[in-house]
User: Fold these one by one.
Assistant:
Number 1:
Amino acid sequence: AQKVTQAQTEISVVEKEDVTLDCVYETRDTTYYLFWYKQPPSGELVFLIRRNSFDEQNEISGRYSWNFQKSTSSFNFTITASQVVDSAVYFCALSERSNMLTFGGGTRLMVKP
Amino acid sequence: KAGVTQTPRYLIKTRGQQVTLSCSPISGHRSVSWYQQTPGQGLQFLFEYFSETQRNKGNFPGRFSGRQFSNSRSEMNVSTLELGDSALYLCASSTRGDEQFFGPGTRLTVL
């Protein structure tokens, strides 16, 4: 069975600090996809990134970066120089050979000015 | 391109009633998935439809059902509503095997 764990339920930082959101996953499949979504107060889930299990290359997109390590089954997300607009709930998710997403419990990030 | 739309955005029902929620996917997307989000259980997968066929189903009772039309629009129905069905219901659309794009959700309150 697949499982995603986000151990940090809530993180509070001051603007311009760097912050890393942790994600650990479990799956028996060798082919799978990992995702990060952002959920602002409006409720809509905003897609941030998708990685497949065969691509362990880290990715950077502006202030966002992702570190995928199969050896530790982790897919961590770092925001550099955080901003108040980054305040939201962030979800890590896993899918195997279908469109069924298994989500972690989410991490609420609060960025204070 | 227009995003995923869901109607209605807010709904209040009483126990025992039934409800139908609608989702219009992004143009060209043939897969529609539904998720339930509650404070206690988090985000849980309900079902996925592709080309009018249910392709995957989550662990929910039979009171939860859905369908997809030939234009890829999807509806989900919950019969005999219970208090615990109060939740944000999210719909997502995708092309096959691609990232899923979510709609704004329908917030259902059961009194």
Number 2:
Amino acid sequence: KAGVTQTPRYLIKTRGQQVTLSCSPISGHRSVSWYQQTPGQGLQFLFEYFSETQRNKGNFPGRFSGRQFSNSRSEMNVSTLELGDSALYLCASSLVAYRGRYNEQFFGPGTRLTVL
Amino acid sequence: TQLLEQSPQFLSIQEGENLTVYCNSSSVFSSLQWYRQEPGEGPVLLVTVVTGGEVKKLKRLTFQFGDARKDSSLHITAAQPGDTGLYLCAGATIGGGSNYKLTFGKGTLLTVNP
């Protein structure tokens, strides 16, 4: 069974640009979550999508947005990039449709975004 | 805001030594997960603990969930270089409706030297 895939793996952008990152969940997984990981702040939750609907959202500005398609693939977009947006962006998929206590998430390898 | 404090932040030990990593919070979690992350990869789930006081063992790794479900520890016996990585704890909270949330600690970077 293929794992979670993320594209691209590496990305370099300049301030003010926008970027779109893609995530393909494990087959059959309908929940996709996005996280930002930086050395200073660690792993921070961005948002979660389930059945094409944003189900939960972290404390990030509106420049960060996402969507999910009918095949459960998800994209996240960051507009007007800032230097502080440089980070590893991780996507995680989950099988559980109803969120019980065992919501095991499977992470992709991440997209390393560098903003110059 | 729920915070998970992990300690120590960095740990460098020799092969064969034992170690313990701590994960503490003032909040109660419905479950707590431990992940390991290697360079260039995403975190990989090691274990989920659910019941206060629960102890789970995974080969040389022992995980414990505090009685009050606010803290957890990871103990590694006879560490090996292959144990090197970033260890993350994550607490799960489930509110009403769709308010599920996983809060991560900042991690403990473990280096096991041969």
